[in-house]
Amino acid sequence: MKVLFQARPDFLQNPAGDSVQIVSTWQSLKALDMEIHLSADPNIDLSPYDLVHIFNITRIKESYMYFLNAQKQGKKTVISPIYWPPNSYLQREGASPNALAVWKHLQPMRARLLSQCDLLLPNSQIEMEVLQQDFFKLAPYQVTPNGFPDSFVNATPQLFQEQFPDLPKEFVLCAARISPRKNQYWLAKLCHELGLQLVLLGPVNDQTYYKRVLEFSNVAHIGTLQGELLASAYSVAKAHALPSWFETPGLSSLEASACGTVVISTDQGSPREYFQDMALYVHPMDDQSLRSALEQSYNASPIPLMEHIRNHYPWSRVAEITLEAYRKVLD
Prior knowledge:
331 residues; alpha/beta; Rossmann fold; five-stranded parallel β-sheet
């Protein structure tokens, strides 16, 4: 089987959750002896491929062009929507006044892909239910979750502690691109009020916002970490907090939990389907929810969630589910 992945052209230069999902799915499928190619060419010759897998309908314009090309050439398509309606986020204080109107204007393009592809691969049943609420007609689907790197089960604190000896021994970690959607300013403010050290990992998406976050003296940003060093960072943190405006479900929350870290997660999106009652949840407009979660996290046990995530969400298992979906389409 030969599969072509298509995604936004800047998914590596401007990394986000979809970047991790694409790369991790690709690597784990290769481990199953699948031949996977990647292209951002909207006019690519698809004759060598059995199937086209398109990622992300939030940035819909590129995905729409990929889909039209696949239809034109008579190729089967599967789509990972990575979808959540951003209404609350786009209506927040300080948001662009026409952002929500632009989002709604592009919904018919999303609707075409969602109804005319061969199979949808939502990351959760909750995501699928939201799609069913927002769109009249949808293709068949198979829930295909996000995952964590299998190697993260071996994470230990030593590597991170050796690389960053000047950091306090106890801190809250947030691994995510630094942007208003991820809500690090709110997290930094509440950590500062509680006297907690906050360590940020990830690229900077918004320089103005980044400068506001760093105004708090308790915040340290140490850039983007990967692989064994990232897993070590998760394992040493007292808690990992991702109080975003929404997540599906938050890849860094998955990774942190697999490394044995207490998880503080937004309650917006699909996190509850993954973490059930084993994480601490916050609402992005409720200060008290975040304050309580931060206070509780230092005495909470990460073990139940760690065992649950390790049993259900390694990328190796996700690859098998994805391969099953491809076979369903081609059969």
